[in-house]
Amino acid sequence: MESLLAELRAAVGAGAVLTDADVTAGYRRDMMPLAPHGQPLAVVLPSSTEQVRAVVRACAAAGTPIVPRGAGSGLSGAANAVEGCVVLVTTKMDAILEIDPDNRLAVVEPGVVNLDLRAAVEKHGLFYPPDPSSYDWCTIGGNLATNAGGLCCVKYGVTTDSVLGLEVVLADGELLRTGRRTVKGVAGYDLTKLFVGSEGTLGVITRATLALRPLPQAPSTLVATFGSTAAAGAAVSRVVAEGVVPSLMEIMDRTSIRAVEQHLRTDLNAGAALLLCQSDSGGEAARRELAAIEQACVGAGAELVYATEDLAEGRDLLTARRAVLTALEVYGAWLTDDVCVPRTRIADLITGCERIAAEVGLRVAVVGHAGDGNMHPTIVYDPSSEDEFARAQRAFDEILGLGLALGGTVTGEHGVGKVKREWLAKEIGPVGLRVHRDVKRALDPENLFNPGSMFSP
Amino acid sequence: MESLLAELRAAVGAGAVLTDADVTAGYRRDMMPLAPHGQPLAVVLPSSTEQVRAVVRACAAAGTPIVPRGAGSGLSGAANAVEGCVVLVTTKMDAILEIDPDNRLAVVEPGVVNLDLRAAVEKHGLFYPPDPSSYDWCTIGGNLATNAGGLCCVKYGVTTDSVLGLEVVLADGELLRTGRRTVKGVAGYDLTKLFVGSEGTLGVITRATLALRPLPQAPSTLVATFGSTAAAGAAVSRVVAEGVVPSLMEIMDRTSIRAVEQHLRTDLNAGAALLLCQSDSGGEAARRELAAIEQACVGAGAELVYATEDLAEGRDLLTARRAVLTALEVYGAWLTDDVCVPRTRIADLITGCERIAAEVGLRVAVVGHAGDGNMHPTIVYDPSSEDEFARAQRAFDEILGLGLALGGTVTGEHGVGKVKREWLAKEIGPVGLRVHRDVKRALDPENLFNPGSMFSP
């Protein structure tokens, strides 16, 4: 153990190897309170690909597991330490190595903060779409590892849709380059998209080539309120059926609305549900899209519809959506779940969450990305009460079961990590699990990376 | 061998097992003349997933390799028979099982012809983007196996971008279900995108859940002519820099233009290069996009720019592009190459192809999807001359080397198959090749599926 620590210090410098338990405690877990976490042997912060390779080789030789980690903003415990592991933190590798506006791509290290990349490419009139809620502090490496989503996904897809290629340190310390710098390419298996979303179980991503898009037009915004959950769900279906693809379409349920009204000391005039939509198509196209959305909402029985092209007003309207989690903190701690259901089943999911809330006797507020069916039912509980925590856990699991029963998936964007391993097995079944194990064994035969995360070996 | 044939007949019915060499000859190779092909033991045409499983189990037990095959429109020899194999043809599994307009998805069997799916979903106001040139006879199964592209890719991506989930028969006959019916989902590794583009080397795809889009607006069309290749290349770069994403952007070089002019007995008034662009954004948005493209072309020195919103006229303008391969047949047989380069290097690729054409003393016509840098230099040769064929092969390889040297890839959309195995190795390097072999071995330990295709085991 001491010899491993010596090797790690030789590899990354003594200052980049943390072993003091008080210090390493900050690297033991991410933002998911339900996931197990152990005590790491050490936390290392390499500054280069070569340092990552040296760390991986040293750990492999010592048989010490590695848990790769970004900023720690995850919501599934994927980056939680396992007992006696080395937590490999990539936040010091934070260089934007290249922005190529002519080929609309950027090459970055994994520690770049999502918001910093967005700001840097915006100067070139370009846009990096993936926008997880934690975009002001999460890193690209974590986004890649979890295939992060966000509010943009309804129009622009998730992280994997913006990745052209990767550089990955494998379990034996070899350096794999996947993908390419061109827009298209089918030379070999799509290893890029295999590593994206693999949650640190297959290797350490040390560099990424990302596809950029032209900066969209300034968004126009529409808000619609509904007297019933069913009517809001019907409005989403009508928007989809109309063939409109908004750049944002968020839903808030009754519980979220009430919490935000109390927090912001305002009346949202929204009974059972609120839809927030944007179009970033600009000009007449945006007007056409918002008009179609308005018609869909009115047709589904909206009580009130209001649209604006004004940027500041649009931002104000989104304040309600962004304030939900803060508003819920008045009532206790929150636990955010993450299911994705077919877009036609959103109302069923919200109604089901109301039933589950009543059963466990806790508040469950549903907010979500209505445009792609990705819902975040958020359970509020008293963290000082073991009983409430147990009931929150029960609600968390029941929501996952409900998502599956509605034809959905147990995770739309947060990942499996260490909190949904049993649910992954339920969703993909024994053959799917076997193939996962076969792929893991092929790339990481000694189970070096993030052992026991996602699925047991 | 007789016992395997008996088992195959028992599995799929005697009429669906072809062994007559005259009949199986039609299933020995695809449309790529350079790729090697062997004599199959038998060609089987299963009608259901269960029949595919039975065929796979029988072949696995007998140690007889399986080459999965769609319509045979491929251009890399991926579906070419290996000596003594069973060619497993999926064209009889051609049912569109479901179209769900509310969730914008379709569930299909692999034998559905691309055009038939397009037509079926269009009745619901929906759009299946991938449009390889062979779309009127190629099948979805082949499109999935090769991750096929087409003219749509500049705006809508390639096949993998439209796939939500798959059903795959594995080497031991087990049935794997990957992905989901929801728009988003990150439960487990992205096995869906691992199988898409794996060219029949990892399993047999028996069902696919495909994402659909709203039907776009009727396209507006713009044509621009240039006195030099460099000016046309600069126009493409300016369009990209302007942040416009056309729904189609094709380029034709001097040799293509001359061939088409002779074939259609017309004067295209295009000196060195011609750009064809479309916008399917409709109305003012389309006008804005085409105006920006026009400005980019004029700024780059276009000699003539003409735009039209008229559908029939737009179709006429595209005739020249669609006529290239037919027009080249006057001069001999053609051999289409497929490289993708950074969009800024298109002019360099065309100029390089002119040099290669002069060196080998053959006509090389370059057409391509300029919007994503995916070029198809097409070599014309006399098939009755061994010498010309050898020179065509030399040109084919030199173009691949040129593509790599320009920072591109050796295949943008046709695949590696049995014609570019050495080039895959060159492009991805020894570590990439090793990981490919590890993944292949994990999923197909006995090397049952398409052995020796893409890379040697």
Automatic annotation (TrEMBL), chains A, B:
Q: Which InterPro entries match?
A: FAD-bd_oxidored_4_C, FAD-bd_PCMH, FAD-bd_PCMH-like_sf, FAD-bd_PCMH_sub2, FAD-linked_Oxase-like_C, FAD-linked_OxidoTrans_Type4, Oxid_FAD_bind_N, Vanillyl_alc_oxidase_C-sub2
Q: Which residues form the signal peptide?
A: none
Query: What would you give as a GO molecular function for this chain, any one?
Result: (S)-2-hydroxy-acid oxidase activity
Instruction: Show the Gene3D superfamilies listed in the entry.
Output: 3.30.465.10, 3.30.70.2740, Vanillyl-alcohol Oxidase, Chain A, domain 4
Q: Which UniProt keywords apply?
A: FAD, Flavoprotein, Oxidoreductase
Tell whether Cell membrane is among the UniProt keywords. no
Q: Which cofactor does it need?
A: FAD
In short, the EC number is: 1.1.3.15
Q: Where is the FAD-binding PCMH-type domain?
A: 36-215
Whether Calcium counts among this entry's keywords is: no
Q: What is a single Pfam family found in this protein's UniProt entry?
A: FAD-oxidase_C
Check the record and name the SUPFAM superfamilies matching this protein: FAD-binding/transporter-associated domain-like, FAD-linked oxidases, C-terminal domain
Question: This protein is called what?
Answer: Glycolate oxidase
This chain's source organism reads Saccharothrix longispora
